[in-house]
Design brief:
This protein is α+β, with helices and mostly antiparallel strands. About 50% of the residues lie in helices and about 10% in strands. The protein contains 17 helices and 11 strands. Strands 1-2-7-4-3 form a 5-stranded mixed β-sheet. Strands 5-6 form a two-stranded antiparallel sheet. A two-stranded antiparallel ribbon has the order 8-11. A hairpin with a 2-residue loop joins strand 1 and strand 2.
């Protein structure tokens, strides 16, 4: 009986593999390691560091190859040329959003980040226009960032030089800038509701980068039937959405269509204008999803970059001292740094860019998908195929950035010490799906970090040589280790 069962199972697996290969059209896809039935190439990938696995596989299969995450094939693009060719040169064809099951359970295809087609185009176009109207990229939002930078400094000043964990304060600052655009409101840093929201964003970013969530994304059936940290992520997002819905209801009660106050008001007005259109994408559900996307993306990525940045500055006091010397020379101590100062501060500008390059925050990007059948480098990629783009392979290109494993602002300076732009600088991705808030994030990183260094010496609790800057998680995002430091007034 046992022998018959083994034979049946073996035959079933062979039939499944044969059917799988036929239905996937693997012969037309780029080459890649042979997948196993049901689990695909999971055993050939280190789920604790997928980006490193992709680099190793690219050495065998080249810059374009196929990987199976469970039953689903994905095409991987590795290296600047392949990434640029797809996301920029064939931007429209590669502008779809790929499969990301945990997030799909949250967004259900709504919002900006995980929507597709007509919905994505309309919501993104509206969001970009509205964000610009409320000052994103303009002087008015710069003043708002400067005000928040001042609040940030005052909060660190309250530590009186005692050891502190900067995580929550660094999260509050960019979140308040986003809140001023979405809700026309900023929170006090001690506001419990605010701290709860920050805690949920920080926890989700950390959990999304754990091996378990990579397993959930590979085998989505787990999400619906097994316990685990994915349920905590879903609960956190549900709580954030509940808060957003509460704010939407408040806005509905006080809405003046002739005087929109913020992003939510503009969306509600657009809903009224399209009330006759049964196919309209402007619904309450889409409003909640869009605001949640902007809220989360505009908070956690910037705050994590700053947190990682301060750790790197603690590790490299000689770089910190050089940046502070430039700040003292150009800005002084008696006025706020501005974006106009950046052109006269090439070293500080290079430091901020190098932080983003070095930490490689989202190493494999948010997954893309092709919007139609595509012939790419003589391979056939069918419509809907998930595309994984290795941003690590671009940010760590050793021809563009010599010794990429070293934290060195010189990667963005020419021989004369002037700032040097690079097409390989893609922490915000590139092409049609690049981060909608890139301009705001770059402004925040420069102004927040410059203002901190203008006002404080950063003192570690251990010898800089003993500071470990390795990420504690290498999944969806790179998460810096926890640490304490002294903020000593200049």
């Amino acid at each position: 009986m046992a022998l018959v069962l083994v034979l049946v199972l073996t035959l079933s697996c062979l039939l499944l593999l044969s059917f799988w290969r036929q239905s996937s059209g693997r012969g037309k896809l780029p080459p890649g390691p042979t997948p196993l039935p049901l689990i695909g190439n999971v055993l050939q990938i280190d789920i604790k560091n997928i980006s490193k696995s992709l680099t190793n596989l690219s050495k065998v299969y080249g810059p374009v190859f196929t990987l199976y995450f469970g039953l689903k094939p994905s095409v991987v693009l590795h290296g600047y040329e392949a990434v640029k060719e797809a996301l920029v040169d064939l931007g429209e064809e590669f502008a779809g959003r790929g499969s990301f099951p945990v997030s799909e359970r949250v967004n259900k295809g709504l919002g900006i980040l995980f929507s597709n087609g007509k919905r994505w185009k309309e919501i993104r176009r509206f969001s970009l226009m509205t964000l610009r109207n409320f000052g994103m990229g303009k002087r008015s939002i710069e003043e708002r960032v400067q005000e928040e930078a001042h609040c940030l400094v005052e909060e660190f000043r309250k530590t009186n030089g005692e050891p502190c964990d900067p995580t929550f304060v660094l999260c509050c600052a960019p979140c308040n800038v986003i809140c001023s655009i979405i809700f026309q409101k900023r929170f006090d840093y001690k506001d419990q509701t605010f701290l709860n929201l920050m805690g949920k964003f920080e926890e989700n970013h950390r959990l999304m980068s754990t091996p378990w969530i990579q397993i959930c994304n590979t085998f989505p059936v787990i999400i619906d039937y097994l316990p685990g940290s994915h349920n905590k992520i879903l609960k956190n997002f549900a709580d954030v959405k509940s808060y957003v819905l509460e704010k939407v209801k408040e806005h509905q009660e006080s809405l003046d269509v002739n005087n929109p106050r913020d992003f939510i008001d503009c969306f509600l007005i657009k809903m009224e204008q399209e009330g006759h259109n049964q196919q309209s994408e402007f619904t309450i559900e889409n409003l909640i999803a869009t605001v949640t996307d902007i809220f989360g993306a505009g908070t956690e990525t910037t705050s994590t970059t700053m947190r990682y940045g301060l750790l790197l500055l603690l590790k490299h006091p000689e770089i910190t001292a050089k940046a502070q010397e430039e700040i003292e020379r150009v800005v002084g101590r008696h006025r706020s740094p501005s974006m106009q100062d950046r052109s006269r501060m090439p070293y500080m500008d290079a430091v901020v860019h190098e932080i983003q390059r070095y930490i490689d925050l989202i190493p494999t990007n948010v997954p893309h998908a092709v919007t139609c059948d595509v012939k790419f480098r003589n391979y056939f990629i069918p419509k809907g195929m998930t595309i994984i783009t290795s941003l690590t392979s671009v940010l760590y290109d050793d021809k563009e950035f010599p010794n990429p494993e070293m934290f060195d602002p010189g990667h963005f300076l020419d021989e004369s010490g002037n700032f040097k732009k690079s097409d390989y600088f893609v922490p915000f991705s590139t092409g049609k799906r690049m981060c909608a808030g890139e301009g705001l994030a770059r402004m925040e990183l420069f102004l927040f970090l410059t203002t901190i260094l203008q006002n404080f010496y950063l003192k570690p609790l251990v010898d800089p040589e003993n500071i470990d800057t390795s990420p504690v998680a290498n999944g969806f995002g790179h998460v810096p280790p926890s640490y304490l430091l002294h903020f000593l007034p200049v």
